[in-house]
Amino acid sequence: MINKFFILILLSVLFSQETFIYTEEEVIEIESYITELEIKDSLNIIIIENLEKQINNYNDINESNELLIQKKDSLTILLEDQINSYDELVKAVEIKWYDKLKWILYGVGSGLIVGILVE
């Protein structure tokens, strides 16, 4: 690997046909541009880290929401079962019309008996 690297450098130096001569201003400008790019790169790294943290937070929130939805669904099922049980209980305990009539007759009858006994 190192040998290939040195061979490439050697070939590039040997076969390069152009030479670049930069003025001092150009060198300063290139250096400032490189510095600016380094700063932008470090800021981009920070932004990427923050975005990754945000993604992790969203994933955690999503997991929590899924668990909450599951709990709410099971609660809904339990409440529906409870409503059905109450409906069945109401039907079992509900007084029928003939039961009402029976109690009315008992009341009238006992009132008559008391009335007869008191006279």
Walk me through the structure.
- The chain is mainly alpha-helical and 119 residues long.
- It has a domain of 74 residues.
- The chain is built from three helices and no strands.
- The longest helix has 70 residues.
- The protein is rod-shaped, with a radius of gyration of 46 Å.
- The mean pLDDT is 83.
Provide a brief overview of the structure.
This protein is mainly alpha-helical.
Quantity of strands, as a count: 0
Mean pLDDT: 83
Name the helix and strand elements from N-terminus to C-terminus, one letter apiece.
Answer: HHH
Query: Alpha-carbon distance between the termini?
Result: 127 Å
Q: Enumerate the spans where pLDDT stays under 50 for 5 or more consecutive residues.
A: none
Our Rg estimate from Cα atoms comes to 46 Å
Helix content: over 70%
Supply the key terms:
119 residues, mainly alpha
Topology at a glance:
Layout: H1 2-15, H2 24-93, H3 97-118
